Amino acid sequence: MFKYLGVLLVCFLGSVVMAQETKKAEFSIVDESNTVTILIDKKDAKVVSIAAAIFANDVLKVTGKKPVVGSKAQLTSSAIIAGTIGKNTMIDKLIASGKLDISELQNQWERYAIHSIENLSKGIDKALVIVGSDRRGTAYGILELSRKIGVSPWEWWADVTPEKKEVLSVSIHATVSKSPSVKYRGVFLNDEDWGLQRWAALNFEQETGDIGPKTYAKVFELLLRLRANTIWPAMHSSTKPFYSYPENKFVADDYAIVIGTSHAEPMLSNINTEWKHDKMGEYRYDTNSETIKNLFRKRVKETAKLEGIYTTGMRGEHDSPMIVGEDDTDAQVHLLERVITDQRAILKKETKKNPTAIPQAFVPYKEVLNYYQSGLKLPEDITLVWTDDNYGYMRQLSTPKEQTRPGGAGVYYHTSYWGRPHDYLWLNSTNPVLMWEEMSKAYEFQSRDIWILNCGDIKPHEYNMELFLDMAWDMDNFEKSASVKTHMQSWAAREFGKETAAEITEVLFENNRLAYIRRPEFMAWSQVEPVTKEGETELTQYHYGDEVSERIKSYETIIERTESLYADIADHRKDAFYQLVYYPIIGASKLNQKWLYSFKNKFTAKQGRQSANAFGALSKEAYHRIEKETTYYNTKLQNGKWNHIMTMAPRFLPVFAQPATSTLQTDQKAKLGLALEGYQMEVNDEIINSYADVLPIFNSYTNSTYFIDVFVEGEGAVDWVAIPKVDWIKLSEDKGTLHFEHLEKRIWVSIDWTKVPKGENKKEAPLGHDFQLIPPSFKVNSAIDFRSEGKTTTIGVSVYNPEFDALENYKGFVEDKGYVSINAENYTRKQAGNEADWQLFEGIGYTNKVIAALPRNATPNVNLEAIKANSPVLEYDFYTFNFGEVAVNLQAVPTHAPHAGIGVRCAVAIDDASPVLVDFQTIGRSDEWKENVLKNASVKSIKQIVNKAGKHTLKIWMVDPGVLIDQVLIDLGGWKKSYAFPKETAKK
User: Fold this and answer.
1) pTM exceeds 0.90, yes or no
2) Domain spanning 516-656, CATH class
3) Of 672, 668, 669, 670, nearest to 788 (Cα)?
4) pLDDT digits (tens, 9 = 90+) for 777-794
5) How far apart are CA 341 and CA 329, in angstroms?
6) Please, which residues bridge with residue 709 across strands?
7) Regarding the domain delimited by 813-971, which CATH topology (the fold level of the hierarchy) does it fall under?
8) Class of the CATH-defined domain 5-176
């Protein structure tokens, strides 16, 4: 060891005049003959030595060689010097001599600079100098080197084993970091009962039997690696209060992590577990304020010298409203104002500081938002922390006046939630692009002081945690919706290699799309508070290609792709892939399939299909696959490192159970059964002219296809053959054998339009005919004979194949079976308005694309006369074969108005009709809101007139900024019940 730090400093200072800063240099950390030394100063903050030790261990994991860390070190040819302005003697001398420019760092929040300096001293030829504006800035600068040498922030928490290298260097650009986009950035550990707390108590921290200082140290390390600085600790009754373990607060301070608390935990106190009714009485401020204030005083005394954010105001115990004597909003508002006044008096007395200099937050969550909206007077220096509606949609944001408040504003956002209408505690099912959309909106409305993500147990929320915190660190990197896919692909490349990054991203995006349509945890159509049994699915099995089967197929595809990717992932990254990609996708897929196959089981059992038993077995198989993977996660992965972290049934809700299934038993001889798209019941040969013996009409303009299911009724095997009566009817299969291994087959029927006789050539469609009762001159009829066991069943086929001059070169949407279906992104034309326009967002919505009214700060235009002239407009050309009153159904992303004066409105008209306002805003936690968040869709319908058959144009004008249009369905009376709108009816 170099014996005297003073000698080193003399050499260092004596040579400083020779130092030269390079704008770009290759800096060696480990080579064949040398391992870098890391020099820090003992008087610097503890987090600096912690970060230096983390980096040294990262180098060891990569190279097998560990740098020495300390204020004394071996004299080597290169060194890393890391310290905070005013806390590191070497760096301060460089600054004083004018050789290290800190003008961009001085008095800044969490910034760092990295410079390569040559000829630093007689013993150090080259040094990498990391200087921080404050203690966290220095730590972030040191850990930036970990990123540069290829160590993932998830190295420990997701077992992302670093690539091994014998020689290690980094390419250094003279770097000065920007100030973080958001001042306080962090997570809320919540609903930890089924994962994090059990894992800590039974596995990782058995000596404490709880989430204690050892667990928090690992959490805090992760937060530092993710460039976060704040935590709201776990607070359920399964976990002892954070401050009941004295070491917790000191570990937090060592890691420079700021402690805050949730909306229900005022003044850093955990009411849920710290309030003792037998000793403290009722938790009511109107009758028991002195006891409550005593708890507040105790906590402020305990934390006065530590970094913290004090939550002001008050709610009831564990996410419940505050108890007051008078059920009157004005009384509640005045009582809450009194609470805040008393809290600030306590802060002033116990900290000896002016409350305006102490970080405080006010969280208008649930009923507290109503109090705030009802006129509650809040001190201007307190940060307003706006919340989402628990399902990812911000309920309110700062008005222009509120944006000028000294205390600023923040965001509390959920990717995990326990509550009505239904929990989502198991998997991360929040669409990352939706999170981007809402966070970028919050940032635009100046919520830039506190961002907190409710991430549940951390696992499996890893990606969304990193995205959330990366946005909070530098929002400039996330200007467009496409930035999320770019970010995810970079993340996947870092974790699993560039070769597979694009495909991993595509699989994850598809998984997110499916979860957006319906979260896995919502697939039982049940609700909570109170807990209800499974409900009837809204997915149709006999219209529009069979929504249940299509969803099954979509999940089969991503399961196959995920398993294929898993097989090709390098061995040292397989465990990471399992945690970050494989388990979340397989879990979501199998929970879906468990319910989807149970829906198939019940549906086919009613039709007497023997395949019902097979569907029931597949449902059970999906359930057992979840069991198998969860057991592997807990007991086999990393030799049991994560045992107890993953629970496949949080709160043991009905959605996580194995659904009951129907079993068919019969001794009847096997026979062929048929079921057609468009009909709930099977074809019944006993009924003459059965309503289910004709397929829906095939439309040449939309190139329709429909299915026929052939299946076994009874016991045994059945041979079948299908014979089209004309050559223009095409079948995906025309013969086969059904038996115990293959009890049914779906046959797709399509049309070879080049061979179909043309209908009459006319300029326009006839006026107002029923599409299902097309005049003979426009319709061509034929049939398919299904023969089995000497019996023939005939299925009618009707095609609509006229020649209309108006449709010859037409590009637009065409009526099919009495409706026109449109994906909003496929507009025919659009026109910008006064400094506003409709723009595409990718990665959100039912088709992964929506159209957004931007900019978000545009002035709403509610003047119906001015809308046509001034507002941005989307136009969709469509063609109908019917006319009369129609229903225009608009599906939007169910966002909320950011504040009073801005709504969630657009205006709609067909052709030259006057615009009609459409308002997607919901009130509170209404039934409409519940339906919207369960579907991630808000559907509104207005009446319009289609005055003739033929060409028309649907127009959608911007009224309020921020509206996100997903899909449109113009119903001329033919739309049947379905969960999602039918596929687009664009002219083929």
Assistant:
1) yes
2) mainly alpha
3) 672
4) 467 899 999 999 999 999
5) 18
6) 675, 746
7) Jelly Rolls (2.60.120)
8) alpha beta
